[in-house]
Amino acid sequence: MSFHGVFTAIVTPMQQGCIDEAGLRNLVRSQIEAKVSGIITCGSTGEGATLTLEEQEYVARIAVDEAMERIQVIAGIGSRSTHEALTLSESLRESGVDGLLIVTPAYNKPTAEGLEQHFLTLAENTCLPICLYNVPSRTGVDLKPESVARLAEHPRIVAIKEATGSLVRATDLRARCPGDFALLTGDDLTTMPFMAQGGDGCISVVSNVAATEMVEMLTAIEKGDLDRAVEIHLQLAPLAAALFCESNPIPVKTACAWLGLINTAELRMPLSPLSEDGGDQLEAALSGLGRSLDRSLSPKSTLGPGEVPDREDAEACTVEFELEDGGAS
User: Fold this and answer.
1) Is domain 5-328 annotated with CATH 2.40.128.20?
2) pTM above the 0.90 mark?
3) Catalytic residue positions?
4) For residues 270 and 239, is the Cβ–Cβ distance under 8 A?
5) pLDDT digits (tens, 9 = 90+) for 109-126
6) What is each CA distance from 65 to 18, 61, 281, 314, in whole angstroms?
């Protein structure tokens, strides 16, 4: 697979505490239509931290099924412990995902040596390509460039999502890492300058609701049309700011619901619905892009977890439906 271009960190649609499969499939289709390179399931934006292992595997499997190899599907993996990350990695073995996005373990604050051993252990126990994920603002630990360079020597560690927002970091990583090691920014507001310093793409929150524009901007950068790239960058800046006016994914999930991409903006506790002030900023940003929206009150957050359909039962229902459909015709 290739970590190149726009990868959307998709939200996880929910209804009444359960994964909304219809909403998830619709969201994946919208990304395919926008011609993104791929999607990320159950990352920070996908509320992976509040989903059970069964739910995360279910979301990945549905995304793969809907994508039908038209775009790449990368599964997010986040855990405080290496053994739990290994468990999730193993559960995704037969899901059909194209790769793994593995975040640094939160709360424990491991040393550089501990971080490197964490990722190397995971790399040695999977056959899938791995994209490292560095987001110190969430995890409390920073994966330094010198560690990334050492990890990049492993054949299955092929990329990093760098979400510090530091442009100095982007330069340092490009100087230290092999040319075929992909650098992806996880900070929408700095996507354009990141790309100018040797970046290969982005893992974007904005592209949940403005995927076409994000794809066009990166295409313009690749073609050397910087005037057009800057124009799009400036157009998207107010939206990027609005989508982080409160904790991600509160605003972006709300935006997806207002635009009809998913059925509801339901979140899982401890996340709470978007405030009125945040809603005003989000509405202004979306309207500024010419989006037609239906601003509605978000439902209360739910506790979860929801029930996950058994794989065999789901397949049996599908076969039964196809037989009935065939008989009716």
Assistant:
1) no
2) yes
3) 133, 161
4) no
5) 999 999 999 999 999 999
6) 19, 6, 35, 13
